Amino acid sequence: SCFPLQNVTHTPRETAQALKTLAQAARGVAASTTDPKGAAAMLDSARDVMEGSALLIHEAKQALISPGDAESQQRLAQVAKAVSHSLNNCVNCLPGQKDVDMALKSIGEASKKLLIETIPPASKSFQEAQSELNQTAAELNQSAGEVVHASRGSSSQLAVASGKFSQDFDEFLDAGIEMAGHTQKKDDQVQVIGNLKNISMASSKLLLAAKSLSVDPAAANAKNLLAAAARAVTDSINQLITLCTQQAPGQKECDNFQYKGMLDNPNEPVSDLSYFDCIESVMENSKVLGESMAGISQNCKTGDVSAFGDCVGSASKALCGLTEAAGQASYLVGVSDPNSQAGHQGLVDPIQFAKANQAIQMACQNLVDPESSPSQVLSAATIVAKHTSALCNACRLASSKTTNPVAKRHFVQSAKEVANSTANLVKTIKALDGDFSEENRNRCRVATAPLIEAVENLTTFASNPEFASVPAKISTEGSAAQEPILQSARSMLDSSTHLLKTARSLVINPKDPPTWSVLAGHSRTVSDSIKSLITAIRDKAPGQRECDSSIDNINKCIRDIEQASLAAVSQNLPSRDDISLEALQEQLTSTVQEIGHLIDPVSTAARGEASQLGHKVTQLAGYFEPLIKASVGVASKLKDHQQQMTFLDQTKTMAESALQMLYAAKEGGGNPKASHTHDAIAEAAQLMKEAVDDIMVTLNEAASEVGMVGGMVESIADAMAKVSAAGYTMTKSVTCPDELGALASQVTVDYSQLAVQGRLAAHTAEPEEIGFQIKTRVQDLGHGCIFLVQKAGALQITPSDGFTKRELIDCARAVTEKVSLVLSALQAGNKGTQACITAATAVSGIIADLDTTIMFASAGTLNAENEESFADHRENILKTAKALVEDTKMLVSGAASGQEKLAQAAQSSAKTITQLTDVVKLGAASIGSDDPETQVVLINAVKDVAKALGELISATKCAAGKAADDPSMYQLKSAAKVMVTNVTSLLKTVKAVEDEATRGTRALEATIECIKQEMSVFQSRDAPNKTTTPEEFIRMTKGITMATAKAVAAGNSGRQEDIIHTANVSRKAMSDMLTTCKQAAYHPEVSEEVKNRALMFGAECTTAYIDLLEHVLLVLQKPTAEQKQHLAACSKRVAGAVTELIQTAEAMKGSEWVDPEDPTVIAETELLGAAASIEAAAKKLEQLKPRAKPKQADETLNFEEQILEAAKSIAAATSALVKSASAAQRELVAQGKVGSVPANAVDDGQWSQGLISAARMVAAATSNLCEAANASVQGHASEEKLISSAKQVAASTAQLLVACKVKADQDSEAMRRLQIAGNAVKKASDNLVRAAQKAAFEKSDEDNVVVKTKFVGGIAQIIAAQEEMLRKERELEEARKKLAQIRQQQYKFLPSELREDSN
After folding, report:
1. How many C-beta atoms surround the C-beta of residue 1398 within 10 A?
2. 1257 closest CA partner among 1383, 1399, 1393, 1392
């Protein structure tokens, strides 16, 4: 009858089937019931369920037809509630359930006594009332234990137990009210009544939990919920007794009645203690219990009731601790058995929800109680806030963990309902706290109802079996191992309970010799049971039994290998004819590799994972029997006696090292606190690894004779590359015959390595034809190398022989060709891997092409070639993306298949991704350049797919041919998941492109996923390909600040255009930051501490930014003012992380850190840049005319040489000048005259600008001078241009000197050097001007004027000359005015210091 109740909410077909089963079950129950009324009630309630379910399916159908109709949704919810109610009625008609309901009703009726306004006066003495309360409390607690026990038995047992419980509760309630009559203060009375109400609610919860367990004993966590409810009854009783009297001798033994429940369910963990924590807990608590027992005995003799009560309390706590430790230890022992299966944690903890529900209900009851004092109201409000907050957090975690979208939504919605109703309640509590009026209390009562309902609904949903923990499956052997611990713990509890009862009677009547004798007997039993518990826990430590068994197995294997060694020594080792040597070597290799893989897991388990130790050592020992068989088999087939002995000895060494490892593991036992054993474990693991390495080396060497070699292709390719490079270098060395000897020797060494590995590769290649091809081509290459070396020797003897040189070059070319032939043969044998490499290269090219397309799109220049819409391309994109998913599956399966399938899969995926990028680019272009952001989103989506494919191909290449449990296989699966995620994201983006209302949201989701993937790459331990400077790192962090501002603005505006822009900016900013952060952190000069800080804050910044973007998404879905305000808090968190990143970047440079934005730093950079510019110009001059020796620019040179030498002198002098200015500027910063972070930023900034502009002018003028000198020498320019350029150099030099003198110390060394350099520039410029003027003067002297002899012609000649003179004068005047204007304009932009000094 339980089965359909769990399934009635599934699909209609399943519901119909479940109802059919329900009908049969209901008829069966009715038929077997002796009470006719009960049978009729069962059938009526079942009929109600049928009718309600029919209506439910009808309403569900209507809701599906019109999904947006609120009215139909509301009707559906109402009908669903009615069906749920009918189901509960149906369950309540089951035998035993009615009795529980009656008991619940009885408790409810009795609890009405607590609603009276005034407590009646006491009718008994205080001692009588106290004694009666103690007695009824013990009986009620015992009844609670009987209810727990009966809930696992028959329905009649539960009926009896629940009836007795309600009767005992009634008596206890009367005793409690009698006790409240004895309290003098009103507040104390209110507390007593409040505690009685709590006991009433806890009792109801216990009966409800017992009822649900009896209905469905297999329900997940039902036993734990029942135990928690029973414990709540005990706790609330103890609270009342403690409150009623401070001298309640021995009443806290009530606790012990419920501790047995922890031992009834040893297939579920009791706490988080490790096994060795359990042992420690048992030791500590047994000591406390011993002291408490002695105290109890002593206080019984003296009659000190108060001290007796304290000792009982201590004993009670110690017993609780002992029972918890015993329960947890027995669970760990059971789970650690190799045949057992460990359970796993559920999505939520129903006990936490149930406890929170109970606490909130009790607190709400106290809130609305008219007798509650202000302090009690405040305390109740605190309890409500604490538990609702915990529930909301639990919902948030559950929604993030679950993959079920319905459950995810439900958890989020439930959390919202709880939070909202709590907020409303808190408002009414605040009003009540200000004024305890009846109206405010009524408001408070009204506000508690929605909260209690929301919490009840949430607790019901959380108790769904789908979310429950899966208990461990303990094997028969595991259960047998648990029994000694459980037996000792139960014995301890029973004897402790009897001891405490006996002591209670003794404290009242200490002079009773027979009772003292009974007490002594119980005390001995407690002591013996604790000793046996400690012994049992120590003996049954997880993994010890398995370690002993594994040690026996390996000892047997060592004996077998010793027998084989003796046979081999006497050469009587029988050969195994049932299997080939190749198969044996394969078997041996794989076994040794598996043993090698298990060393670290065994070591880890031995140091701190006791529950895993048994599994791991059993696995390890299991490989040694096949290892010994394979090793003896290989040795038996080897002809060489020495090789035989080596194999057997190394196998024995490996077995002995494993034995040592197991002894160390047994000693460590998985105890993280047994640090004295950890060194021995690490040493044994190291020895075992060395033994594995030794036997693998021997295997590889021996395998060369039969071709059993893996992973040789790459080393062959390396050797081939070396041979090819050597041959190439040899052709280049024809001009240096001395180097040929060394090169010939290198070729010989490289080829000898190639030959060895080539033979092995030829044996392992598939098919055999390729193996033969590799062999013949390597041999051909050998002949080529012989000829090459011979010709090299001949050329060394006769270095000048041209014919031999030509022959050597021909031989080298032939070697290079043969190398390429060998490589092609190797690639044919390694076809799949090669195809993966080719495909990865193609994908890299596609990603680079997409980056270029993104640049075009961002610039607004990506347009379609013809008139087409995005809809024309959508189907094509979707179809190609689905094809790519199929290729992904082929790639993953190809890794485990042969090279042929892998090659096909790699080629197919490369082809498909090319097609996909092409169609996506066409689709993006069709969107149009007026929407560049959407274009970028679409291209980014396909870029993510391409990146994921690149990673997948790389992972496939690494995993090809590996075992299923190899780590590279896990990487392959992870890469495949990312690939599928990114393709799904692309499909969603494509569908959202034309939907203006969602495309921004979709872009943001894709960006968040992309940043998370970038983050996983960032957090991997792989070092980046290159490093970068802290300055570059800081520059990249600025993008985050800008992107954060845009994200907050987009969240506030809610416009899809802003969201898309934010998504694109965020993607680039975060990608750049993560890349440069890792590159800067891995710089060789950065310390380990700073590197870790940079990586930590980089991850923190990314996490904060992801939270910000996710909150923006939340704001888009539900834009409230409160949510928008939270955006600022998110952005502050990002800003804080960015600040930490910048400080870390500064720490990377240490004391040499300079702010790239500091004007003085910019000045120095510009000065050094100017110096470099001048030096480059000087080099240009050097190339104009080569010179044999240094010359002075004097009159002995001709004009061209004078010009060149003078220009060179100026270039050299200005270079020295700018470097001196740089040194002077650095000296000013060091002296503090210019702050590295200036106090007056404007003032120092102006000075720096003056220095920068002056340095730039010097560089520009020198460059112009060099061009003028070049043009002049070649006859293309006038001497006037040369003179003008030289004067400009002198003028700009003067300005640079002025700029440096503004703040400098005139007597400093740097200033003196600067002055000398300035004078040198001036002198060199003057020399050049003189030389040019002299040349111009000489040229004018040489000009001959032909005077016409005729009169008219002569007059015309004079007029023409005067006209030219006037024109030249006018041009000169205009040129002067122009120069003056230029200088005036430049003067305006000069800093104030330069203007004053210039004046």
Report:
1. 12
2. 1383
